[in-house]
Amino acid sequence: MGVHASMDTASRSKLGTIRFGVFEVDLRAGELCKQGVKVKLQEQPFQVLQVLLERPGEVVTREELRQRIWPSDTFVDFEGGVYNAVKRLRDALGDTADTPRFVETIPRRGYRFIATVNGSALATGGSPEMADYSPEPRISRRTLRSGILIGLGFVALLLAIAGFTPNNWWQHLRGRGDASQIRSIAVLPLQNLSGDTTQEYFADAMTEELITELSRIRALRVISRTSVMRYKKTDRPLPEIARELGADGIVAGSVLRAGDRVRITAQLIYAPKDTNVWAQTYDQDLREVLAVQSAVAGAVAKEIQAEITPQEESRLKNVRAVNPKALEAYLSGRFHLDQYGKLEFYRGKEGARSEELRKALAYFDQAIEQDPQYIPPYLWFFDWMSPIDLQLNLISRVEAEVTRALQFDETSVEAHLARARLFEQYEYDWPGAEKEIKRALELSPNSAEAHYQYAQYFLCMERKEEEMKELQLAQALDPAHDYFADAGVHRIGNSLEQDRQALEEKAPNDPQAIGILARNYATAGRFKEAAELYERCLRLYGWQNFADVLKRSNKKGGPRFAIEEWMRAAEEYSKNHHDDAPVFEMAFTYANLGNKDQAFAWLDKAYAQRNWCILYLKDDPVWDPLRSDPRFKDLLRRARLPT
Question: Structure pTM?
């Protein structure tokens, strides 16, 4: 440590004084002063400060700090050492990690000095000027200029000898050679630096918006939000994350909101080498926060030399401001809608669910009132709502709000996909649905959701080759989500035992997954396993009475009898709870039991309710016992499905 320190002292003797805020750093003496008064600062925190001041406004990685401050032959807890050194430096500067004025933490990367140095303004959102260190003795401008020219000529000669061409040597020095290799991007969840957990929804919304803007650039492949959100608050190495997601580049950053001001930091990393390609900080009014996301998307595309069409460039540049009150109301609505979704499958909590939904809709109404042209509050429904919910006087609202959203912004991908789902499920207008999906893909070719929705359309239309192509595209854009498994929900697997093993390992308490496997066992005529899984599924859903019926009847007359008794109990329940009856479960269970009349009676109810199961009549094997019946062909005709 002594040798290392003496080397730093020798280096400092060549440097002068740096000033920022009320502080002054004497690099020769190794001292930090505040308004002329010396501030006590230990050796390693001072070294960290020196390294940061050498590159103000730029990201200094933890690895760079390790190489500069901790020699390779020094055996220390580096992570703890750098954390403590930065903490002591912040203490000396009166700085904090949550609201930094001098040293900003760049999540999963390192640190950046963000204050003005020696009076040279670090322009927020612009390229920082290098600090003027004012070394002594002074060198004349003429001598300095001559020296620079001689030096550049010598460097050029060395580069020529090494095989670099004039067109690529500067790009190589800047790291742009790495940038040009980036063709797929993953945006990791932006870190919430506010210290306020209620601001997590804001940070997530900013992440989602940035992904949306990047997805509109056809020349880029952008990983879907559902894949990247699982890496929230992870410290795993970026190259490892990139490999799992199949991405060349990683966009990472942070969000700090204070009142109506927002600071967004973003950086682009070339993942295979874990090298920083570009970084920027944006300090804006909350009204301009959506424009910031477009600016980041445009900057990333420019940095990696991705081709941007005139239409894409126009959209990135022309982003309207949003009323901060509307944004706040929308995020509050999202919170309550998420709470509603968590309660969706559990009986006995209808009052709590209804209250969460009421609060969510009230906040969305408030957001629309504050800013009628802000689109997200119109598109709140499909991810959380079941067909029964939408029948409860909400479907007309949904249709009207999708129409209004498209009137205000015809380029809203989410609105086009929502209209497509309305056409499919509530009007059986298949040509209209395809038109909307194709328009969504024109606007956002990187939308995994749009490609999956198109695959589902082709599934219903019995166009298998096109279905598989769209599934592959969706899977590539959202690798963490198993779209092929989703598509296989409507098909019997090759091995029910393998499906059972996978269920027990990955989702032992997921009532939906358990119910699907129970259905597959019933379709295969294996009623013992089906009854066991149905009982387990019903208890998880909160249907304790039905689960008790299954258990008692199984002991009395065996599994097939138990399922028949469960159906009879459900029939009685449905007489007083028509809107809450499990129509799909009733229809396919009666089909498995060979009771065609009851199966078609429940399918007619499903058709009247516009239940999702009608869309998959052509594909789902649970309907195989009914296909030869003329009533099945008539149902296909009414749903305008291929016959």
Answer: 0.67
